[in-house]
Every structure is written in C-alpha cells, then in structure tokens.
Amino acid sequence: MRTRLIYNPTSGQETMKKNIAEILDVLENFGHETSAFATTAEKHSAKNEARRAAEAGFELIIAAGGDGTINEVVNGISPLENRPKLAIIPAGTTNDFARALKIPRNNPVAAARIIGKEQTLNMDVGCTGDDKYFINIAAGGSLTELTYSVPSQLKTAFGYLAYLAKGAELLPRVKAVPLKITHDEGVFEGEISMFFAALTNSVGGFEQIAPDAQLDDGLFTLILVKTANLFEMIRLIGLVLNGGKHIDDKKIEYIKTSQIKVEPQSDDRMMINLDGEYGGDAPITLTNFKNHIEMYANLDEISDENYSGDEEDLELEAVVSKFSEEAEKNV
C-alpha cells in the first residue's frame, strides 16, 4: 500500500521527531511503501500536502500530530471525490479524536501498530457552509475561545496544563449570549454560554461530554449550555465527570441532529472553534457528511496501559479545582 505520513515535528513536546524512524520501520513491516512529510510553518502545510498526496494516488494518509494537524489533513482530502483511507498517530495536547478511536496516546509507535490490525470504519465528517471540515467538534462561546489564547510554545512545553491555566483565567469573562439555533427537531431561541456540535464523545479531554455519540450515524450531538453562572458550571462539570449525567440537567439541551444553523441574536461576536482551531464567525451552518472517510481505528477493547489515564484524570480534577477557586473569588 502506498502510504504518506504527514507529521507535525513540533507537536506534543516534539515526540514525532524522536520516533519517526521506528514508525517507518513498523509500517514497512506491515507492507506499506511509506514516505514522510514534515509540516512547516507555511499556512495549510498539512492540508496542501494531504490533497497533493491524495491526487497523486496514495492509498493511505497518516496524520501524525495534534488535533489541529488531523483537522488540516481532513480538510485536504474531504472535498475530493476519490479519498484515500486515513489513519492517525496522536502527538498533541488533548488528542480528543484519538480517544474516540481508542488509539494509544503518548506512544506514537504503539499508535502506528494499530494500522497493522486492518480495522477500519467509515467516519462522519462535519462541514460548514463555506466548505471547512471538522472531524471532532464545532463549538462557540466564552470558554471555547481559550484555545486561541494559548501560545503554541506553551502548548508544546506544558501540553494540557496550559489549557487548564487559561481556562481558569477566562472564567470571570463567561457570559450568556442570545442565539437562534435551528436543528432537525426544531428551533432553540434563548441565551447560552456555550454550544458544542460533537461527532465523538471526547471534547477537551472530557470523554463523557457526549456519552452516547456514534462515529458513523450521520448525526451531531448538539449540546447547549444554558447558564453562565460559575457555581452552576462547576456543578455541570461535576456531572460530566460523574458518568455524563449532565445530559439530563435542566441547564442543558441535548439534541441529535444532522444539520445545525447557528444565528447570533445580538451584535456580540461569536468565534467558531473547529477541532480546536478558529473556523470563522457565526452565523454558521453545519452539515454532517455521513460515512465520509474510511479511517483506521482500534475496534477491539484495548487495555488501560495503552492510555495515560491516571495522569489525565488528575488533570481533569485540577480543572474542577481551578473552577471552584475562581468561582469563590468572583462571587
């Protein structure tokens, strides 16, 4: 199989640089004729290379890096009629998409070995009205803007902890804004602090944000947070961590839909986050392209040691602690 590995050399404390030779060796042993491309600082470097590789006839593209690198590769191949298969090697900070596909994180070589299992599924892909694609989440609201505020150097050096610090810093600025949101089941009109349109169950490291999300059903999980009160938000985060019980809370709208139209009802700007990157401003229309890309995934139940779960659980506890501290300061 002709395979193109597109990797971000700066992701995840530069782990790909240290493992690239062993990864290529693993792929060769699987019978892949593999070449590698290191992304550059040039705008859309990964996106442009993914499109070029697809049009050159590569059968598999492997996106190695953080969620931003994966998003670029998805944007490179999604508009094409003939799309190659896609695999991912996570090497970023939150690695939401890898969580959903049950691919080992913090171990690029183990992630590469998943490809040898030859297990794939046809993944849904989201698309905006101006042909921007996303594979994990579209979101808008106060706290979703924190990803734009964390410098890339901090993300590389401190990873997920950089987001924790920034999230706590932004808490006093959380506010609700009036929105009109049209979906398959009707129309919501009211004030919300955040919305999420999720394709997987993992958002910002929280694996129970959309606990029943299906990867290939053609539906977004639309979540509307109908409060900006700090104590209520702390309570909702606790419900998320406690098995996804937030979905039944009166401060949450939880909707399955194939299409979403988001229309601000004020002059306040709402920036839209697509897979952790800025994707334009609302108003915006989101459409689910069912089974759009065939992707390698770990379809078997994998063991706990393939994850750094204990460490990440501690970081999530730190989120709640930070929120509590800031709430007490600002009441």
UniProtKB/TrEMBL annotation:
What does the record give as cofactor? Answer: Mg(2+)
Which Pfam families does the entry mention?
A: DAGK_cat, YegS_C
Known InterPro entries for this protein? ATP-NAD_kinase_N, Diacylglycerol/lipid_kinase, Diacylglycerol_kinase_cat_dom, Lipid_Phosphate_FormReg, NAD/diacylglycerol_kinase_sf, YegS/DAGK_C
A GO CC annotation recorded here is: plasma membrane
Q: Which GO terms describe its biological process?
A: phospholipid biosynthetic process
Kindly list the GO molecular function terms attached to this UniProt entry.
ATP binding; ATP-dependent diacylglycerol kinase activity; metal ion binding
DAGKc domain ranges (all copies): 1-132
Keywords, A to Z, come to: ATP-binding, Kinase, Lipid biosynthesis, Lipid metabolism, Magnesium, Metal-binding, Nucleotide-binding, Phospholipid biosynthesis, Phospholipid metabolism, Transferase
Q: Which family does it belong to?
A: Belongs to the diacylglycerol/lipid kinase family.
Question: By its UniProt entry, which NCBIfam families does this protein fall under?
Answer: PRK13055.1, PRK13337.1, YegS/Rv2252/BmrU family lipid kinase
The identity of this protein, by name, is Diacylglycerol kinase
In which organism is this protein found? Answer: Pseudolactococcus laudensis
